[in-house]
Q: What sequence folds into this?
């Protein structure tokens, strides 16, 4: 028995399914381009075994434990560590059993698809996970993890990853990337410039970070021009470690294009810790335009993904800290918000700004029309809806008619969960083939054109958009 | 000839349809749990015949007469009574004929599905309703209504209703429920605590209501602590009449968690009639948090359904009063609005707050992510879109991936139209089976799991979520 | 080989496709009613040949050139003229080749459907457009354009257009319409009253326009009452040239119903050029209510289409002027915005106000509920999403259940691209038949009723709603 249906995510209707199958058969084995992710470069640098099944699948994956938590299961009992360092359940097998007992909660969710895919394709498991099979699963996976073919680099190669990007702060010394580079291993692991710590006045220890930024770069980051110069230099350093992109996650899509004097004053206020919330927001918005200008010079692709209310629960933030499933999407405006940046640089064909959203209502109304006319804009995939098939399909349905396929950038997985990477790309390829199959079956696209587009969406567009 | 297609609402594609049929065959005859509705308890208490076909299907159902009105048909001619007590058309047969002549207006609407279902399944009619068959319909239904098997309790039993909830004000003496309880009839009819009259400072005669509230409960409702105590006691009284839930319909989802002193001051201002609109809103928002705290003690499930602009037309409100089809949905924010309440009690697994919406854009963006992580939150069904099949399907498509099935609560009918209750539950069961059939046909869920979920959605989840 | 699939846009599933085919076969040849468009009346008046293929398909159609521009192709190279009168590429064949080379960018877009339809059905072309076939296309189309059967009137007749509306300013002398009327040609070309130039205080040269308006009508347009009288008279003049409708495109759906004194003061302020942005908005909003009152007298149908951020790029507006693909939809509220107008005249069954939207999120939430109860309101088609099949289908899915079919008004093409008119109506008819086929296949509508509705949507409703 198999956990996975061979034709999963294809349309049920026979003719469309056959077209989808045919399209998919030509793209399923293409290498993976993963240009926006959050795996840990240390894994590839050290190449040590992953610790245990719970640590691999449950404890670090907020898509998994938030669903369990929503049904009344305590995070302590799932082994999620508190901010104060204490952990409730410390036996990974007990955590695994609790997870397995509640596996029915994931019915109909993308997590279920990724997990089953990992279980079957990565670990060769064939019986469904349940309370009854929990120990069998645990033992089998634990066993595997100690074998050389389950070490991070071996998995990287088995997953057919052509390139993967990680995400680092400008204050990071990129030591793990250095180590990977010097190891002689051929895997392509690049960094991404994510400057929140030094562009967000509300970031913890902003002033201290800017000081450290100056020390790292040898620039006078207490002055506006020195601060900008530090960015320029650090971006070069990141490019030397493979970076082809920067990444910007702000609460809103607000941009500003302030006169230099005004920008300088805001910066000095931010350093002094005197910014109001509105001024901090304006400064972040202005820095997006500065980053865009630097991109015109150094060629880094910009990624903007606004719209999360981060760490929504005060209590959970206090007990367990960030990234515990409490990032809740909010309504996001793009049309007004991006105008200052677009008026500054939006018609530059050499610039590439990739927009993401957590607010699907913006797809047809704002994002597709914007990307369908501004040369600098492209649409990132529907990833913050955790790579959901329904979300991916709605993305194509709501953007293609106005933005076409070629103002989109293929698929990003955006994940920390290493084993789910092939599963997520597989889901994206299947959904895109299903969408294309419908266009073909409905007489809206010739089948040979669909084959070309399928290849573009699975591989070429990501490679090209991210300059990888 | 039949009015209803045996396979209605199932997917057209053969394999999916077969799966849907099979799933449905196992849930179609399950008892009805109707935990949120607006039928009149007096019907079950007195058990008298319903008056006539127009009074049963047209005059009280704003989904029916608003459509006719939108096409230029006068409410007077439909026998809808004015606020001043006058009625235009007083001959129910004339009203019925006008309705029948315009029955084509309901093509493609849920009302049409419910009406045809009632005509065929409740009254055994088999020819389509039209001008030509209007009198046949009228005579046949009028005839039936005088037979014992069409009395409210007989229909209740024929409909296989296991439990139904009605909705009452804290100022209601629950006399009809008392009468039902003492009648020896076994039908389970419970009340619901709907405190608008005494928690909304803008409610007509708010101060007078609070005084009456004090008299009913023996509490000093002129003081903040006495007022809260009155709620506590009245909730106990409602629980004694079967209540398992409270119900809260505010213009927005705003909640507050004010310091006691500040809440008290707002309350006193409200009593004195000195609240600004903003203060009234803050008070209503704070009372949601107070109600949630009481729920933690007494176990009542909370229902919050915000977002209607009530009685949108000034002229129609003046002439015909409330509930005449002029409640228009508005954009509704949940993420900011619910935060105070959620920070206070949102991680309590014993609390159960069921959220409804009229703004579908909130499903994928806000409601599913919130319900998918906060243990206290569950998602109510898509009912304010009047139990529409398309709306129900979109609800599953937009919430399942993030909230799963088990953070939803099955189906509520929310209706005043007694004969439509089986039709609405049948529609919901069919749509859920159609959704599940697609998941199975697309290889995303095993068929035996789908059977279990279908049962959960049709019966178990409502029973469990509402503690019935 | 054909460019078009006979069954395009029908559901892939066989039974539904057969129903859709059958429905479509009865409506495909119905005459075209085009009550809201932007073709140039001069074409029909002069009946001269269209200049060349690039001028016919590329240079004037912002749906075409904005997609090319979004992929880095310069508007100068596409022959789009700058505001200063200069043009980059002046050889239409070079423009055509650039377009043909990039034709793959239109995969999956409605433009592709219209273009292929025009190529095949209007010009008899059968090979796909590409770099290789660019010259063949160019020569063939250029050849055709000089033949009498490709003159504007001949095409009008070949397209089976029963009536077409153009759009003019109150300051227009309607000379082309006059010329058409006197030509003895039987084609029905009517005008539409679009008063932006004299109702929008922010319109270029507003005060001068109002003065000219006075001169044209012989009314004292410096006074509020004279200004209103000028509208009344000019509407009569437009009615004499066939107008059955007025057209109003404001940034928002805001309406006002101000006391006459206050309206007068605003008007005088506007004339003096002293309006704030808020006051200008209020004045526009008030004028919608005035226009509605005039409609009650003279029977003109009102069209309101709010919600575009016009000419979003400062740079492109400065270089190339208006209508260059930079109108970006924004979030639009209707419920609060329309209330003043609806309280004034919304329950008048003789009034007909057709609402359009660029914000699809308003369909299910606001527009369908409003049109489903107010007799004065009808829903315009989904045209600002450029007649997209997906958008049209979502329109039916999100409005039918609440507003029914009979509160919608059939299809409008809203285009300047003459050759695309039959293609657009064909797309609309196919999508409506596909939607109806699904309702029939899912047992929600009888097939004979679907035939009647298909005819209504393709022809009758537009004719009736626009009083043509």
A:
């Amino acid at each position: 028995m198999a956990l996975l249906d061979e034709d999963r995510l294809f349309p049920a209707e026979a003719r469309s399914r056959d077209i989808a199958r045919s399209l998919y058969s030509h793209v399923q084995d293409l290498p993976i381009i993963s240009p926006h992710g959050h795996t840990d470069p240390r894994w590839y640098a050290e190449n040590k075994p992953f610790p245990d099944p719970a640590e691999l699948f449950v404890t670090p994956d907020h898509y998994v434990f938030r669903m369990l938590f929503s049904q009344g299961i305590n995070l302590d009992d799932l082994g999620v560590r508190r901010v104060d360092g204490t952990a409730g359940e410390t036996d990974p097998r007990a955590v695994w059993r609790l997870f397995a007992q509640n596996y029915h909660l994931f019915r109909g969710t993308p997590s279920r698809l990724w997990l089953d895919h990992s279980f079957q394709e990565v670990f060769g498991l064939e019986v469904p996970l349940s309370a009854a099979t929990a120990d069998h699963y645990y033992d089998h996976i634990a066993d595997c993890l100690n074998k050389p073919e389950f070490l991070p680099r071996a998995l990287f190669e088995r997953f057919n990853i052509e390139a993967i990007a990680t995400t680092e702060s400008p204050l990071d010394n990129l030591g793990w990337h250095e180590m990977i580079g010097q190891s002689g291993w051929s895997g392509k692991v690049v960094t991404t410039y994510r400057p929140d710590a030094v562009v967000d006045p509300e970031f913890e220890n902003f002033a201290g970070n800017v000081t450290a930024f100056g020390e790292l770069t040898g620039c006078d980051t207490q002055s506006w021009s020195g601060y900008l110069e530090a960015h320029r230099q650090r971006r070069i350093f990141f490019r030397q470690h493979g970076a082809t992109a920067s990444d910007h996650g702000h609460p809103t899509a607000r941009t500003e294009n302030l006169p230099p004097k005004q920008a300088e004053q805001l910066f000095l206020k931010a350093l002094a810790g005197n910014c109001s919330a509105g001024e901090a927001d304006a400064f972040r918005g202005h820095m997006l335009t500065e980053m865009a200008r630097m991109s015109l010079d150094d060629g880094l692709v910009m990624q903007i993904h606004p719209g999360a209310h981060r760490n929504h629960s005060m209590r959970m933030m206090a007990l367990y800290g960030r990234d515990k499933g409490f990032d809740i999407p909010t309504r996001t405006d793009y049309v007004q918000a991006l105008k200052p940046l677009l008026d500054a640089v939006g018609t530059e064909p050499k610039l590439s700004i990739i927009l993401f959203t957590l607010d699907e209502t913006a797809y047809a109304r704002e994002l597709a029309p914007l990307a369908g006319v501004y040369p600098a804009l492209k649409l990132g995939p529907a990833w913050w809806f955790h790579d959901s098939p329904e979300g991916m399909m709605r993305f194509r349905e709501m953007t293609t008619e106005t933005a076409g396929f070629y103002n989109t950038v293929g698929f990003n997985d955006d994940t920390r969960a290493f084993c789910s990477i092939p599963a997520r790309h597989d889901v994206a390829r299947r959904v895109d083939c299903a969408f294309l199959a419908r266009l073909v079956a409905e007489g809206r696209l010739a089948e040979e054109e669909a084959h070309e587009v399928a290849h573009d969406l699975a591989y070429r567009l990501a490679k090209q958009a991210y300059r990888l």
User: Anything to note?
Assistant: The first strand of chain B starts at residue 32 and ends at 34. Chain B has two domains: 14-48+151-466, 51-148.
